[in-house]
Amino acid sequence: MAEEVLLFSTWPSIYGRRVEMALKLKGIEYKYIEEDLTNKSPSLLKYNPVHKKIPVLVHNGKPVAESLVILEYIDETWKNHPILPKHPYERANTRFWAKFIDEKCLPAILKACWGEDRKEREKAVEELSKLLQFLENELKGKRFFGGETIGLLDIAANMIGYWLGIFEEASGVSELLTREKFPKLFIWANEFVSKTSTGTPNLKGMLYLPRDGG
Amino acid sequence: MAEEVLLFSTWPSIYGRRVEMALKLKGIEYKYIEEDLTNKSPSLLKYNPVHKKIPVLVHNGKPVAESLVILEYIDETWKNHPILPKHPYERANTRFWAKFIDEKCLPAILKACWGEDRKEREKAVEELSKLLQFLENELKGKRFFGGETIGLLDIAANMIGYWLGIFEEASGVSELLTREKFPKLFIWANEFVSKTSTGTPNLKGMLYLPRDGG
């Protein structure tokens, strides 16, 4: 039987983009199905009845949901170009930081961008500055979080990569997130964006962090 | 070199208990270090500088934090008595439901037990009833979530196992979480508790869900 790989997503979703990146890195052919989150399809509701969220990967009829879970599934199913390290300790570190990005960094980015008022936004940027320092340290001596090649943690950090680039463009937004303060993250962000964007990326689109994805 | 396995935890923590269960299931010798969360030790702060939370497993000097990450690390490091299934699809399902328990069920249990007022608590119990229905369905045709033996998802669901037992004892608390409505979960909870508790478990203690664990 020929493999059938479907991806239910919505184009600006960073969670959906994670899955697309992994599929593309591994050269897996898939059919992309764009979801309208204001009018979810019966297929999405059938495949992800628990969260009713994108992305959902459907492999030979079997659905997998939650972007980080999907990334591990892809890595275990298609062994070429591994995105998780081999050693259990490094694998644990990768999972730890991916969770950190989802649970700590992304909420802070949300607040930094769309906080209710300037005070809340500035506080979030300050918080983010502390969080990014951890990631800056993680890049020590490495080109990507995954080492010499893009791995699961780079993919999980996609939002940070694209977002830092924008922050730099919009100079004056904050002095806390400068290239001087996070030199490794800025170099990583540039290289990550140039390696993963196809054509001219719509950076503003990438900033959209739907609460309906996961 | 002899293996050195340390576990920093605090006895009532369901997150710490998860790690203990996995270590015991696999027969791994470890040294338990009780943390006082009101006065965290320099070791805990050194080993988990990001979250400053228990549990932390330190294996030959290398720390791993976050209970679900630790469980995967243990399973990849000590191969006997696997707690994750073999097939990628089943592994993905296990990870999906473990995440569901942490992100959906545990917050609902917190609110059901310590909600500000009766209205909030009742609403949480109602929400929990919907969530538990998903887990009830997952047990279809199975003795444990892990199949014939206790696996990662059973361990992740430890709070639910102990908590359902208490709920049943405290009859009249809610008609939404009855043995009639969740027969499989109740049978599972009884068997899980009897298999995992050592001596007389302090069930009230198990209800303590510290915000300082993860």
From TrEMBL, chains A, B:
Keywords: Transferase. Pfam families: GST_C, GST_N. Residues 87-214 form the GST C-terminal domain. GO terms for biological process: glutathione metabolic process. It comes from the Eukaryota. One of its GO terms (cellular component) is cytoplasm. The keyword Transferase applies. This is glutathione transferase. It comes from Quercus lobata (Valley oak).
